[in-house]
Write a structure and sequence with these properties.
Layout: E1 2-7, H1 28-44, E2 48-52, E3 68-70, E4 74-77, H2 89-96, E5 101-104, E6 116-119, E7 122-127, H3 133-142, E8 149-154, H4 161-164, E9 165-169, E10 172-175, E11 189-192, E12 204-206, E13 209-213, H5 217-225, E14 229-233, H6 236-239, E15 250-253
Parallel strand pairs: 1-2, 4-5, 7-8, 10-11, 13-14
Antiparallel strand pairs: 1-15, 3-4, 6-7, 9-10, 12-13
Length: 256
């Protein structure tokens, strides 16, 4: 069974961390409605959703992806690059503990889950303002027992690696070539985002279906032409906080 951990939108969402976007007022109620629709989309795809209550004082806590990397054998609790986000990890660790062995990134390393793209036994980690070389090195050490291959990837002009590239089907990535070099991903095919939609590379693959923002119609047309089944959602308020569809869930397999 696929399981997703999600967390409701914080009432402090307007105080979110921003790196590349200009701050705009976020309609909290609309953001909550959009997040509810996101959870319902996961339900519709057969995913068991563990929906956590909002964290009153942690603005970015809806973006649970950044707090952990969950693999079949182990969950790595991250140390987010933004210090304001580090208190988010304790509750996520408690929720994941019944499902996985737990390992933890230690100071001075930083790592955001949004910088981690898992493709089979290969794990690509973006070198970003949120994930430093020590974090990448610790991932290599923590996962050595399970034979994962770690590869550092340079990114430019975006917050996280998965702002620039995500998997949309077996062997196929959706990518912004101005933000990440496709040569970093050997053996993969690519769909490039439309040039007018630079932020269109973030998507969430659930089995063989793709959850995708409705804000990028030109890139969506490319995905549909490639035969990819898509479920489109309005995440416009969540996007104001530099969030995407991968950011709002920790998705993993479980027998429970």
């Amino acid at each position: 069974m696929l399981t997703a951990i999600t967390r409701k939108v914080s009432p402090a969402f307007n105080q979110c961390e921003l790196t590349h976007l200009t701050r705009q007022p976020i309609d909290i109620e609309k953001a909550r409605e959009q997040h509810d629709a996101y959870e319902m989309a996961l339900h519709s795809l057969g995913v068991k959703v563990i929906s956590l209550a909002a964290e009153e004082t942690l603005p970015d806590s809806v973006f649970v992806e950044d707090t952990a990397v969950v693999l079949d054998e182990v969950a790595v609790i991250t140390r987010p690059g933004a210090s304001s986000r580090r208190p988010e990890t304790a509750s996520i660790k408690n929720v994941l503990a019944p499902f996985r062995k737990i390992r933890t990134i230690q100071p001075p390393a930083t790592l955001d889950g949004g910088d981690v793209l898992v493709l089979g036994r290969s794990i690509y980690i973006g070198r970003s303002t949120r994930s430093n070389p020590a974090g990448i090195q610790q991932m290599q050490s923590l996962l050595a027992d399970w034979g994962y291959r770690i590869k550092e990837v340079n990114i430019h002009g975006c917050l996280h690696l998965k702002s620039a590239v995500t998997q949309v089907s077996d062997g196929l990535l959706l990518l912004n070539p101005k933000w990440v070099n496709k040569e970093s991903f050997s053996g993969m095919d690519f769909i490039a985002v439309d040039e007018a939609e630079p932020m269109a590379a973030n998507s969430l693959l659930v089995d063989n279906k793709l959850i995708y923002p409705d804000a990028y119609p030109k890139t969506l047309a490319k995905l549909i032409k490639a035969g990819i089944t898509t479920i489109t959602l309005d995440i416009s308020e969540i996007a104001k906080a530099e969030g995407g569809v991968t950011c709002c869930a920790l998705l993993f397999k479980t027998s429970l």
